[in-house]
Queue: 4 jobs
Job 1
Amino acid sequence: MHLGFVQDGVGDAGITADVTADQPELTIPANSSGTLHVTLSLTGLTHTASVIGGWVTVTTDGTNDTLRVPWAAATAGDAVVNLIREAGLTSTTFAPGKSSDPPSQLQLQLGDVEAGLGADDARLAIAPVARLTVDLYQGDSDLGRLLDLRSLLPGVYRFGVTGRGLLGRAARPGQLPAVVDATSVDSVVSERVLPFAVGQ
């Protein structure tokens, strides 16, 4: 059995890929199995999110049949360095209110979208948010997680802030920082801390 490597070249934008195997040739007896370790190396990575791919080809001795095993690699790009593009509260000092008419609103611009690398490149590079959490604190006390959302596409999101805990109890007057964490698909975390004050 002989192994080969093909990079499809579609939208690779100068990225070079190379696959090496611990055994370039492998002999497997009939009705048996074998183990092969394959390593993918990438050079010339761009600063935008992209996906490159191709095939590992497997050709058996004495035949013209070739098995093509697809491979792909996703690069997150620089956009994931800051998945929270904008974050703020419409009011930073307020008395506890109702969820039906919250006294403040958390506004977040999340993720990123970039056009293709060239004039003829119609692709969009999308950096989504794999997980969004918002935790509320008061002093050393963790008042709970207000939000825990997954798989958010780039966009603007708005959430009501009432100044109350998860059980509906009004928070004690004072500073309550909200900690916003946005995690990328490759586990890079962007964080913002938004302080606000709750009055009587």
Job 2
Amino acid sequence: MRPFLVTLARSSKYFPSHPTGIKEDAVPAPALQTPALLLAGGSAWLDASGNVWLFGGLGLAQGSVPQEYNDLWKYNPGSDEWTWVGGSNGPDAAGVYGTQRAGSAGNGPARASRRYRGRTRPGISGCTGAYGYAQGGALGNLNDLWEYTLDSGVWTWIGGSSSTAASGTYGTQDVPALSNVPGAREQAVGWLDSSGDFWLFGGFGFDSSGVEADLNDLWRFTQNPEPPPPRPGPAKRDMA
């Protein structure tokens, strides 16, 4: 794939000739369909086909006022076209969570200042945490975990809370458990390793006691965790 520079300078409107925009399943995107001018906090990644995906962030769009968005875009470097795939074309959208681990066309993460994301499995991308609007519109730190399936275009709420200011549940260090979850936070660092596991470090958020402070905890999210190795038993003795 040739090197390319993604520019958002063509337009600060989603679709100048249509007030609600046109999503991917309608018609091909015209040349002027672009995301808002991004100021900070958006999440971007590449899929297996080399397309660039961009989710949310603080941007300038309709009205040129800096606001938070939860829109999802795809950029095809071959055709040099942006496609608005999902999310709202207005700011300050609250999350629509649905049922945990049950994807639905109406689900989607809240707008947020920064989501920590990565590709969790082929064809599937994930994001977690941020400062944004939870279900019902409450504003604060979040610890919700989401997956987006590229083929179906569906968001699935995987874990964490649908409310703000959730405390962390730490469990036993180095032992995975379904009940474990990082506390709600912002300004953390997130990345994927070569196995597709998602790592999250630190930030400003809530510890296990519900105290909001700077954190230095390190977390790993694994879709199919291996069971811990068996503990060694007592040494066998020769009875002869």
Job 3
Amino acid sequence: MKKVGRKSKYFIIVEKWNTILELAKFGYLDEEICQYIGIGKTTYYKYLSENTEKAEAIKRQKIVANVEVENAMQKSAVGFEHVEEQLEYTPGGAEGKTTVKVVKKTKKYNPPNVHAGKFLLLNRRPTKYKERQEVDLRVVDKEQAKKEIQEMFE
């Protein structure tokens, strides 16, 4: 006798497993993956907690996505060279076919991106580089402070 009722949500995860891995590889968040395949976060997390191999596979895919972004950010922060190809087309004439006449390759340089560098430093070394500097304005010795101020203006 055939079972009656709806399919298990786990069945949807198993059925769309390759899609889930691809989404994780492209950097989608767990919430976005759940929404895309049509299940709740609770079901998704419960499935992954019961299937540790699958959870590890998703972690690996997310690491790949993060490393690719970090490498691109690093490359942008320090500047890089790349080759740009430009195609020139010639009209086909009597036959009506357009053909590629010349492929020009040009070496170009992208200068360092200051914002990418700032972002990397703020996030990789937060103790050394901060968005906001903290300055202690309390004066311990008033006489010493007065001397230092006078020396600055002399």
Job 4
Amino acid sequence: MMLVEWSWALVVRRAWVSAAAGLAVLVVGGAGGCGMTITPPDLGWCGGRGGGAGAGCGEAALESGSADVSSTRTISIQCVDVFVADHGIHTSLILPRSDGTIVQYAYSRFSWAALDQDQWYRSLDALIVPGDGAIGVREFPGPATRENVLHQCEVAGIYPVVHELYLVTVSEERCRHLLANLDLRWQSHQDTAIDNPRRGLKFTRDPARYSLGHNCNHEVAGWLRELGCKVDGAAMTAEIRVREVKRRQGEATFQGGTEH
């Protein structure tokens, strides 16, 4: 019975979100569509991808000197891989910590996610009537690889399930900065914390109100921008594409679709 009820809730909510997203795109012009297209930051000659902090290394050449004397020095940019998780109509962000563990952060409506008031007949109200926001957190063992993240999500029985993971390479410094901000944001209201075993997340109330114009996907898009990414699209839905620039040739490929 619970599975049937959840399925109806998902179907109804997806329909309302899709309709609202389509309307928003028509109103605002909608460059990039209802979802989001993510362009990772240009980190120069970023090296290999791996699990934890410092997974890759980008190098940039700097020229200095006078007309008579010039020199070139190389600085290294430490890179890490983060993951955008697509949960169907929701998204969350998974980041590596400096100690080798990984953490998932998600934003939602407090009543919907923390209190499980997610029945299908609440979908329209939850979508269009502003309500209290919530920040959820979950810690995992590393490394921060696609295979391990998917394995940990499966072991934890994450709900809603992860349909797809999108890898984005960013600078370690920006990742540490975002994590510090999210940790503080969660900890600042930990007196309101609710441990939801169904979702596997610990939620606290968040000052940012949840609304049609500020849902989980908008929050994730904002976090990606803090990581130095460019995000195009209305970010109303979990339709995601990640643009990967092959910096040596200047070519571009996509995860989750082709460029139009």
